[in-house]
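does this look right to u?? oxalic acid version
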Amino acid sequence: MSMRSEVEKWVDQSAQLTKPDRVHWCNGSTEEYNGFIRVMLADGTLLELNSRTYPNCYLHRSHPGDVARTENLTFICTEKRDDAGPSNNWMAPKEAKEKVSKLFNGSMKGRTMYVIPYLMGPVGSEYSKVGVEVTDSLYVAVNMHIMARVGDVAMNHLEKSREFVPGLHSLGDLSPDRRFIMHFPEEKLIWSIGSGYGGNALLGKKCFALRIASYMARRQGWMAEHMLILGLEDPSGKVTYMAAAFPSASGKTNLAMMVSTLEHEGYKVWTVGDDIAWLHIDEEGQLRAINPEAGFFGVAPGTSVKTNPIAMRTINHNTIFTNVAITPDLQPWWEGMGNSTPQGLIDWQGRRYADSVEKAAHPNSRFTAPAKQCPIISPHWEAPTGVPISAIIFGSRRSTVVPLVFQAYNWQHGVFMGAGMGAETTAAATGAVGVVRRDPMAMLPFCGYNMADYFRHWLEMGKQIKKQPKIFRVNWFRKNSDGKFLWPGYGENIRVLKWILERVRDGGKAVETPIGYVPTPQSIDTHGLDITTEAMNELLSIDKDGWLQGTDNIEDSFGKFGKRLPDELWEEHKDMRRRLERSQ
Ligand code: OXD
Ligand code: MN
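got this back:
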């Protein structure tokens, strides 16, 4: 059977179940995109923004109960419960299908089903993969147009790759009581109903490129990670690539698009990706990364000309905004945009905003913009072979305990560092914000299988890489006793990347401490920066009690994986505790 017929077969089955009135196959063209936009403007799904300052930009207001990923309604449906592991919600595939097919039954009656073949990864890359999403949401269709490579390009790739990940999506009635984001990694299938929110509904992103792909990657010997990819250019013009994992809404987009404050010295950042990295080992044993996505689905609040001028230039044309506020002259607005609250603001729910206690823009409001619009997009961002990775960075929000930056002793210690990472929760998922939880490699909500096996896979990959990237932990978010950030962050983070680059090249001063190699305060370039010596000392200090308490938390978190957790991680844990206890 040709691959097209395989896809048609699956689309027919989906249509029999969901019973749409019409089926539209997307070809990915600009005309198609514009046509979809016109339909949504006419039916009120989109509002056109100021065409002078934001040409081809639109606002979408979602259902107020459908604004973030719902981790409690996201399931990994493997035959054996233990293969999903203790950190995932699990349901048996048969039960999941019975339960959810009732909801899909007739869910597209009176509506159009859009068939979206899409390619994740650069055109012509052997690392790229095809998905086919069917959905009854035009908002999803236009977002997919931006976030992935849609249409013929995917169908052409499929003829060679001979494999696609089907994803069935329907808005259902948007009630959280009937919302399920189901993954069947063993048959590489996704079913999502009851939500139109990006992370739940743009199935190429979290569902495929992370959950299903992580499962495939383990079997096929590569890695699918929640990581940005950036190139750091040094004064000689050489570019060194780094991949960095941070939990959702913790500044990945800002770091990926950073405007370096050391540009006058020749240090500059190139963006390759801002959210997901697929990492492969090439024939020479070099780890290489591709960005499977074609767009940015970034958090709007906090984005400003000060914090991320590159994003501001990326998102002022051809962009879809979701749940931001608007000014009377139809410009998007959000908290932290760097100007005072305009008069006559309309909040994210379309109400007049009158300094209410609520935010004008939803804290998880988003922009969807094509990656190629980014003024500092790397010339290699679509290189079929990807970019070579020299450093891996783990980061998260921690207002206490974790120093600005430090380096793992070696790969195994780095895997332990990532696996034990604590992170304060954010508005990207429903639930309490600011609570510290263990978020291994920032993959807690995104690993499509038992995380103990995922850690094992990391350890195994390390053995196969000839020149292992060095592994680092960063934390821009440490605060002093008055609750003020100690480190200026944003463009100044280049100073930390500079130290990382020096370490990659076997330079950069550091002291060996119980937690890893910590820079000496003088080895971070603070030239021209208004920061006190005390602040630098505090930023790089080791809070022994905090770390000891952290080791207890890691013990609880590792303990949940029982015997499946690799012994190597317990050894690292034991060694760290011993080093801490012995230290002064
Ligand atoms: C995202 C997320 O949207 O991590 O990237 O939630
Ligand atoms: Mn993300």
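The pocket of manganese (II) ion (ligand 2) is lined by residues 226, 248, 275 (CB under 6 Å). idk if thats expected tbh
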